[in-house]
Amino acid sequence: MVANRPTIKDVAKQAGVGVVTVSRALNDKEGVSDQTRERIKAVADEMGYRANRYARFLKLANNKNIALMIKGIDNPFFQQMLDTMETATRSRDYLLSIVKVPHWSDEIEEAAKLVNEDVVSGIIFLGGNFTHETNLFKKLNVPFVLSTMSMVEDVPEDVYSSVAVDDFAEAKKAVGRLIELGHRKIALVGGDSLDTSVARLRTEGYNAALAEAGIKHDPKLVPHSDIGRKSPYSYQYGFDVTNKLLDEHGDVTAIFAIADVIAIGALKAAQGRGMSVPEELSIVGFDGIPVTDFITPSLSTIVQPAKQIAQLSCELLFDSMEGKPTRHELVSAQFKEGGSIAPPRGQR
User: Fold this and answer.
1) What keywords would UniProt list here (predicted)?
2) Residue 327: count of CB within 10 angstroms of its CB
3) How many CB atoms lie within 10 A of CB 80?
4) Domain ranges of the chain
């Protein structure tokens, strides 16, 4: 039996570099140092890798396509980042291809399929989880950046770059503002400690703010709803969970929602019951999407710098594609006080 001939991925693994780097080196393309090029060619020769197998990988070496993996494509916060990302990639003569990742899917597995088909030169993950099996990342032989997420647990930081706000600290700030106003019955809508996306970090920030103020955590004020395969980052989710909350705990005086879309759904639920916001219920969101200025009352929220995150995400990806070290950027967010919060009744 004839042994399987080595593939370009075998060469990449043996040389400790990515598939793109191997393809560029073997085809004398730019973007690879002379020392690395010679080392890769030596590895290929030792493994018996033949030139007639190069052809199907040429499209990868010359590929001018960046995949934007969006987990939550309906989220308005993500949508406002797209123009900036497209402009940044086009300025480098690359095409930005948007890939929708369903809420229940593993975005790393979805990206690995694209890499296996040799159709992308880099990947930006917009949204997603930060707990994955480490071996999944070994399948991504192209540079990638986590956008709006700061880390992946148990995966070395030199494997990827990231851009995000400090979700924990910003959530703590938002809940702290409600506490400053005198609120003690503060509900959280949209996340729990079992969540492995930014919702978990924002939940931890909520818990930390309560603990620092000496307010006992009440799990009844962290309601949830069975969503099946639907995304929890939606107006409908905020509406449904808030109605459930108010049915069961009508004495709540404030809500911290982990996303603006959830907060707007919560506002709709409260107003549908004839409740006055903020006189009877204060609501704070997270993201700073433009519509928060055009609802009544305007929403108090943590404003993430969407364009800055989008621009940095692209810059870090291209840096990685050029062989520069990975970086992890935390950008600043701001608390915008709208008309949706006030001291609870009896403390005005």
Assistant:
1) DNA-binding, Transcription, Transcription regulation
2) 16
3) 17
4) 56-165+306-332, 167-304
In CATH, what class is 56-165+306-332?
alpha beta
The answer to whether the beta carbons of residues 187 and 256 sit under 8 Å apart is yes
Q: Which H helix or E strand runs over 134?
A: helix 134-137
The pTM of this model reads 0.79
Instruction: Specify whether domain 167-304 bears CATH 3.40.50.2300.
Output: yes
pLDDT tens per residue across span 95-116: 999 988 887 777 878 887 777 6
179 CB-near residues (< 8 Å, 6+ apart): 186, 209, 210, 213, 215
- Which tokens belong to 225? 């709803």
**Cross-strand partners of 96:** 66
pLDDT digits (tens, 9 = 90+) for 203-249: 999 999 999 999 999 999 999 876 655 678 899 999 999 999 999 99
What 3-state DSSP class applies to 175? helix
Question: How many other CB atoms sit within 10 Å of the CB of residue 237?
Answer: 23
The yes-or-no answer to whether 56-165+306-332 and 167-304 have a common fold is: yes
Cα–Cα distance, 174 to 335 (Å, whole number): 7
Rounded to 5 degrees, φ, ψ at 109 are -65, -40
Alpha carbons 75 and 233: distance in angstroms, whole number: 7
**The token pair that represents 22 in the structure block:** 């191997």
- Spatial distance between the Cα atoms of 261 and 288, rounded to a whole number of angstroms: 10
Q: Amino acid identity of 3?
A: A
